[in-house]
Amino acid sequence: MKRPARPPRLLLSLCLLAGLALSCAACAEEPPPVVSVLGPWTGDEEKSFETVLDQFEKKYGIRYDYQGTTSLRETLLAQVEAGSPPDIAVLNSLGELTEYAHQGVLVPLPENVRERSPEPWAPELTVKGRKNAYWTPIKVDLKSVVWHYPGRAPQKGDWCVGVGSGATSGWPGSDWIEDILLQKWGPDVYELWATGELPWDSDEVRTAWETWGRLMAPGGDRSQADAALGNDFNGNDGKGLLKRSGDGCRREHQGSFVRRLYDEDITYVPTTRAVAELRNERGAYEVAGDMAALFDDTSGARALITFLTGDEARATWARAVPESNRPFFPVSVGSYGETWANRAVHDTLTGAKRLCADASDVMPPGVRGAFYRAVLEFLAAPEDKKLLKGLLAQLEDERLRHAELGTPRVPSVCAAPTGGTGTP
């Protein structure tokens, strides 16, 4: 049987070279890397944030995969424990971020991002003997303010509060207590308490709770406190508590993000002007923020977190949303629009003498959760001193437990605003 003729060596070599060329072409056409991002924004807020991510992808050719969730803590914790965290996560809990940093899960920020990460939102941590910054604020909010209709005289028992949307929804109450303690005792005492150095059963903390109790149940009237337990902070209909009618609700202690629920007919004043017994001239305000942290040290993740802290991303984000919901940033990048509320919030943030991070955001997650639950129990009987004593004892036990465990703490909470007009 005649064997088929062998192909010439030259032809065989050409075939091999052609195959290699095709393989290399296939390699060159592999899709670019994808940066995974986990964050708190869903719905319309997710769409506006993705406008920023789209701009990043267009500019750098690096794709992204954004996952928005209202169960951020649980989702992130599960991913970290499974060994597959996102490249970047955005969360507001400085306490959680501190724990992740000390566990070696977070990557220190690039130097150019570190320079754009001001206190009190991004204090530097000392981890394994080295000082670094591990997260950066990409959006911030002002607290320590009271929203109201101009011209409507305040009345006793006219506070709008909504904590009835879930087991962890005590945060509007914790915001109240934090702000009262800040305004009554000043930033130094506030920082000691937020960082776990001041006991929960101290006179300062107890007085803050009692003050809030008098506001929620003036003269022992629990009707306002009962209403708070049945209301969501959105007003149960997504329109904001001040839009309710027929229940005498006239004033709301809430952060600047609540602007999205209201129109220009609602304005704010500092808490120190809304509550006579808190009046002072310290110029101190509580603030919160959404922090981005690196969980993986890839070139794409570093490029994205750098972009998110830059002027282009901030301007893109500001243009992507209605003016009533325009985000604020730790350093101004231009116009915030023409609404009174936007200008006023910006001026307050930059003109403050002291800005202090939300205390419950700073606390270890276990303490923060206990704080929220205690708020809900307290509202059932704000005038009951025995109940308050028991709640503070429980919170103190939780503080001591974390101290014994050596739970890492945020080192600082208050600072003068970066680039602002105030002085410490």
Automatic annotation (TrEMBL):
<dbReference type="InterPro" id="IPR050490">
    <property type="entry name" value="Bact_solute-bd_prot1"/>
</dbReference>
<protein>
    <recommendedName>
        <fullName>Extracellular solute-binding protein</fullName>
    </recommendedName>
</protein>
<comment type="similarity">
    <text>Belongs to the bacterial solute-binding protein 1 family.</text>
</comment>
<keyword id="KW-0732">Signal</keyword>
<dbReference type="InterPro" id="IPR006059">
    <property type="entry name" value="SBP"/>
</dbReference>
<keyword id="KW-0813">Transport</keyword>
<feature type="signal peptide">
    <location>
        <begin position="1"/>
        <end position="28"/>
    </location>
</feature>
<dbReference type="Pfam" id="PF01547">
    <property type="entry name" value="SBP_bac_1"/>
</dbReference>
